[in-house]
């Protein structure tokens, strides 16, 4: 706790995202524009979190801090996992056709087809340091945030007072930290390119009594936060509460089996079969975030898939259906009237005395 109070004198910027805190060097900025994560819960006390961050800004390097409830194994994950997940949860697309024309349809207009200890805590040590692709990954033992500050300072970064304060609940709970330095490789002696676009995904595997997605550090964000969280478990999953955000929205819920998936990263995570739940949540006021998301079994395994529908004028080939339907009786009436008129004319021509010309009466 004493180390945390000492860190409050440091005021370099710290940007939060749903999975942890992003720290940049003095004078540079880095914005997490998108965060997508996958939680895999085996039900046996082992949890995986696969995260992909999309960033933008002028920072050539940054550090990212992720608190975890147990010692984590960190590896690179497969980027195609997220493409495969997006394909699975894509909404069903349906076209609803209507018969009678609407404004803009007349006569045959083209249709629009767009549609987050005390002093008796044990000493803190750096468990390991590894290079994974563009990441320098350090795993730090639990109990003392000063170790995290030392690591950051050695790499040119420092914790702000607000971030140090936000770490206090994790220190009290005995959590550990995964500290990741993001640094794209540049030319020798150069500053290197700025961090931009999707970063390579990372996989964290750790032991925990119940599945959790850390969110508490997101309360430091200055702008609205959005969480997109995939959960693979034995059953449909929900959260215990909203932790200060809007209600959690279920976007997809369905059981996956390996037979219905192509060979790839997702199929490996599904194993013999798992239930996939996709949760969305908005945090309009990140300062109200008051905890981490604890994931629990939903009340039922009811499946759900969104449907995106668009409306089109019903056509038969290139012709709107209403035209021949309405036009046919009119055409028949015209033909019938023409036929009747023709019959009447012929009858009038064959009536006695209808002949013309001067002829005398028989003598």
Automatic annotation (TrEMBL):
The residues that cross the membrane are 321-341
Signal sequence interval, chain numbering: 1-16
Lineage top rank: taxon: Bacteria
For this UniProt record, the keywords arranged alphabetically read as follows: Membrane, Signal, Transmembrane, Transmembrane helix
Q: Name one Pfam family in it.
A: DUF2330
Q: What is this protein called?
A: DUF2330 domain-containing protein
